[in-house]
Amino acid sequence: MRRHTLLYYIGLALLLVACNDSTVYSRYRHVPASGWEKNDNLLFTVPPVKQDGQYSEELGIRIDNTYPFMGLTLIIDQTVFPSLEMKSDTLNCSLIGEDGVVKGKGVSHYQYVFPLTTLTLYKGDSLSITIRHDMKREILPGVTDIGMILNRQ
Fold first, then answer.
1. Taking burial as the number of CB atoms within 10 A of a residue's CB, which of 34, 65, 86, 133 is the most buried?
2. CA-CA distances (angstroms) from residue 43 to 29, 30, 40, 70, 131?
3. Quick one: 4 exposed, middle or buried, by C-beta within 10 A (0-12, 13-18, 19+)?
4. pTM for the whole thing?
């Protein structure tokens, strides 16, 4: 009987933690192993939010050890529906320090999360987000995934 009670409380604790999670959207898009072409946009479609409020956006990046640069410049274009409000951001991501040490988490594949912006959204608003790189190379090797995370504040 004690084991069942312990399992009940563990399950209840996990349920409470899950209910308090502020993340309303988190998706990653895979980048082809052959490289990310400069004109290839990654599209994220955020479904309608359920509550009015402030939402913070974060950008996730995953690279492997073939990535040849210390940083990554991304252009993020967003449209809020149904208002058709448009916003464009340029994000300069520092991935490797001047000392050559990787700033991300991982061993041969590294993950980063960068804050992007804060938005005011109303119940029923949705987002269309496109991301492209703005590096000098036409085909960028070593980027494996790009992600968008939307959190309710």
1. 133
2. 8, 11, 10, 25, 7
3. exposed
4. 0.83
Q: What is the per-residue pLDDT for 153? A: 93
Rounded mean pLDDT, 33-55 = 96
Q: Which residues contact 97 (CB under 8 A, 6 or more apart)?
A: 70, 103
Higher pLDDT, 55 or 101: 55
- Nearest-angstrom CA–CA distance, 80 and 99: 40
Q: Which residue type does 125 have? A: D
Longest CA pairwise span in the chain (Å): 65
Name every residue whose Cβ is closer than 8 Å to that of residue 29 and which is 6 or more positions away in sequence: 42, 43, 44, 145, 146, 147
Q: How deeply is 60 buried, as exposed, middle or buried, from its count of CB atoms within 10 A (0-12, 13-18, 19+)?
A: middle
